[in-house]
Amino acid sequence: MSTETGFGTALRQLRTAQKTAKGVSLYSRYVNRPAGRVCAAAAYRVGLSPNQVTLLSAVCSFAGIAAIALVHPSWGLGVCVYLALAFGFALDSADGQLARLRGGGSPAGEWLDHVVDCAKIVALHSAVLISFHRFADLPGDGWLLLPLGFQAVAVLIFFGGLLTDKLRAPRTAGTAPPAPSTARSLALLPVDYGVFCAVFLLFGGAGLFRAAYALLFGCYALFLVAFLAKWFRELSSEPSPG
């Protein structure tokens, strides 16, 4: 497709080049992917590459993360952090969509995307820990362990899901992807990154933020146990190589 293609044409073509919605939460399905589609069409129109969009996503996300660690929490800061993280998340969806619009991605592009995602997860919870230590009047020092636990659980979910996808047998050519389940998409909302970003809207209320952050940590921990059991069961049924 020529880069002279208009924004509207690129947007229409992107609507027909979406990944399956199976295993995707309602937020990603109805908010983040459509927002990423608009970003991808705009990026295509101005001639950006998928890797450049990935780096823009990293800039937005890490600007928000730096603000968490360096600036005293307030309601206004929370809104700014949320917008930076949410826009970075939309761009994270846009890079893959842009790659498909341009005819396919590359191993290097996929590698860069995953490295940025992993760095973002580690840095985000580290920034919360720094903010707790620098600015919060915590009920007890035990609260400093919460971001460390959340970080470990989030990294395990990210890595475990990524590795499971790589080890699964590829779908037979011509086989239609399974239909998405609305109930499953709703159930996955607590562990959607976009929902996690929204927690920072409470950043100005110290107790409210800690409570919401702890609640999401509990959800992530429960889902980790369920995901690990599911992924191990699925891979145990895969045929052995060779």
TrEMBL record:
The keyword Zinc does not apply. Pfam families: CDP-OH_P_transf. Belongs to the CDP-alcohol phosphatidyltransferase class-I family. This is CDP-alcohol phosphatidyltransferase family protein. Keywords: Membrane, Transferase, Transmembrane, Transmembrane helix. The chain crosses the membrane at residues 76-94, 142-164, 185-205, 211-232. It comes from the Bacteria.
